[in-house]
Amino acid sequence: MNQWLKTSHLVRRLIELVEIYTIKSVRAIKKSHLRSIRSWLHRRYLWSFISLFFIGVSLSVAMTACSSPNTDTGSVNSTAKDNVKLTLVSYSVTSEAYKQIIPKFVQQWKKEHQQDVTFDESYEGSGSQALAVIDGLEADVVHLSLALDVDKLVQAGLIKQGWEKEAPNDAILTQSVGAIAIRQNNPKNIKTWTDLTQNQVQLITANPKTSGGARWNFLGLWGSAIKTGKNEAQALNFISNVYQHVPVLPKTARNATELFFKKGEGDALLNYENEMILSAQNGEKFSYVVPDVNISIDNPVAVVDTNADKHGTRLVAEAFVKFLYTPEAQREFVKLGFRSVDPTIAKEVESKYPKIKTLFKAQDLGGWEKIQKQFFNEGAIFDQIKSKIQLKEV
Predict the structure, then answer these.
(1) 198-202, 250-254, 312-316: least confidently modelled range
(2) Nearest to 97 by CA among 175, 165, 163, 181
(3) φ, ψ for residue 364 (rounded to 5)?
(4) Cα(35)–Cα(346) distance, rounded to whole angstroms?
(5) DSSP H helical segments within 192-326, as ranges?
(6) What is the DSSP string of 38-79?
(7) Between 46 and 346, whose confidence is greater?
(8) Is the pLDDT of residue 237 over 50?
(9) What is the mean pLDDT of the segment spanning 87-101?
(10) Which of 99, 204, 354, 378 is the most exposed place for a label (fewest CB within 10 A)?
(11) 3-state secondary structure at position 244
(12) Alpha carbon distance 202, 269 (integer Å)
């Protein structure tokens, strides 16, 4: 009986150990743990039995793990029949393009992989979107207004360094230039950036602190001064004069557009050229000018590595990004006024867009790190202008 009790105690102890090690790891039991078990056993013939027992348990757990759905980030998803959900986070003015592009990708993926893909979509100001992803909005793919916002996600550990090389064209997906919308018949005679400083002109533009589009507007104004021979002091004076004509600062470029067109506020609106084209297509009655000294508005795309790996959606996310560069998708962007990054398509539609005499890039102004520090950090040039003029946010 005593021998039976000892054996029973050993069995109970062994069961406890099996539960502990099974929960903690499916890997092989370390030798040090096995030695501790040996010390509890007083008879050598029992050890052979117990060793075989643990080997069987380990093999069983391993086989169970191997037979489980594949959660490797390189897999499409758990099985070919499972649905895949991608979360796309983008800046506000791209929403109309994605209404056309996403169904095309879903159809193609279904045909090639017999798998349904659904999308959660979010459209807001680019700066706000970057912060939302950092704060927990689990985007698989981001298409933002400027590289600076993607770099914020790199700094947060969500996107790997070198993301620019993970997609064609240095990950620039869409391009546009700055434009000025004006009322029909141009009663204020606005033709250039400098005309925005005329008396009694009210200008609508979004808030550069929350809108990527508004940052491009700001840089377009600043760069137009620098590229026409003004020094930085003169450029600051010019852009300060422009913002004196801004009654309110909407949160996003889309909000600014609605304020100008739907509510009839302002004599002029700063926005992307593509947004002007889209508004005209939607029946708005207005004119617009594209200044011939202008900034190349380059909008990047990236897979959010941490989230795509977590969700097991990397293959689909990368395929979606790749699809966005196809002629089929690029033509949808062109229909909505974007300048294509596909050279062949750009050549096909070049007559649709006004020619730019002097086209400069963010890199020509020092790159985004310098731009952020000089213009948009707390207490930097934009904050100084905003405080001095007491710009109102809405």
Answers:
(1) 250-254
(2) 175
(3) -70, -20
(4) 71
(5) 212-226, 232-243, 253-261, 273-281, 305-311, 314-324
(6) HHH---HHHHHHHHHHHHHHHHHHHHHHHHSPP--TTSSSSS
(7) 346
(8) yes
(9) 92
(10) 378
(11) coil
(12) 9
Phi and psi angles of residue 327, each rounded to the nearest 5 degrees, phi first: -55, -35
For residues 361-384, give the mean pLDDT.
Answer: 94
| Cβ neighbours of residue 138 closer than 8 Å, sequence gap 6 or more | 87, 304, 307, 310, 311
Pairing of β 172-176 and β 178-182: unpaired
Measured at the CA of 295, the angle between CA 292 and CA 298, to 5 degrees, comes to 135
Q: What is the pLDDT of residue 193?
A: 96
The residues with which 269 forms a beta bridge, in sequence order, are 181, 204
Strands of the 178-182 sheet, one edge to the other: 203-204, 268-272, 178-182, 287-289
Q: Token digits for 3?
A: 């021998």
Distance CA 284, CA 287 (A): 9
pLDDT at 46 over 90: no
The dihedral built from the CA positions of residue 354, 357, 363 and 369, taken in this order, carries a sign that is negative
Confidence at residue 81, expressed as pLDDT on a 0 to 100 scale: 57
